[in-house]
Amino acid sequence: MRSIARITDVFRAGPSRGFATSAPASSTPYPFSSRAVFPASTAPTPIPANLLSPKNGFSVVEQQNAALREQMDPAGLLKTLFSRRSKQRLRTGSVVSVLSYTNTAKTGVSPFSGVLMRVRRRGVDTAFTLRNIVQKTGVEMNFKVLSPMIKEIKVVRRAEGRQGGIRDLRRARTNYLRDRPQVMAQIAGALKQAQQARKA
C-alpha cells in the first residue's frame, strides 16, 4: 500500500518533480521553468552564398566535392586529364604509365604501363583501368586518380584521330580489347615505332 501511495504522490507532483534530476544553474533563466537549461550559444559558421542560391543544380554534395578537389588534387588532374569535357582529356586507347608505391612507407615504386580502357568519373573517387600484355597474358589494373599510393601519372602517347596505330577508340569502355589481341598488338607496334623515331 505504501508503494502505491508513493506512486500516486509522484503522479500528483508531476513527472518533472518525480523523475527529473536537479539541473545546473543557467545563465539565461527560462521564465516558465527553473529547471530548463540553455547552453551557451556559439556563433554558427556562415553558409556559403552558392548554397543559399544554388545555380544549375549546385548542391551540398557538389560543394563538398569542390572542397575535397582543392585539398586532394593540387595538380588539377580531375579538371584536365580525367575531365569529361576538357580538351586535354585522355581518350580511350591512350598509352598511360603509372608509378605507384609498393607499401605505405612509400619506400618502393612499381611502374605499370598500359592502354587506357575506361575512366570511371565519380568526383574525388575517379578511377581508370589500364590493360597490358605481360608474357602473353592480359593484365588489367585499376587505379584511383587521387590515391595517396600513386606517385605519378604519365601520358606516354595520346590517342588522337580515327586512323593510325594509336587512335581514339571512340568508346567509353573498350572491354572488347580483351577479345581482340590484334588491336593491342597494333598499339604496341605503333608505340615502338614512335619511340624508335624519337631516338633517331
Automatic annotation (TrEMBL):
Keywords: Ribonucleoprotein, Ribosomal protein. It comes from the Eukaryota. Coiled coil: none annotated. GO terms for cellular component: mitochondrial large ribosomal subunit. One of its GO terms (biological process) is translation. InterPro entries: Ribosomal_bL19, Ribosomal_bL19_sf, Translation_prot_SH3-like_sf. Pfam families: Ribosomal_L19. One of its GO terms (molecular function) is structural constituent of ribosome. Belongs to the bacterial ribosomal protein bL19 family. PANTHER family: LARGE RIBOSOMAL SUBUNIT PROTEIN BL19M, RIBOSOMAL PROTEIN L19. This is Ribosomal protein L19. It comes from Apiotrichum porosum.
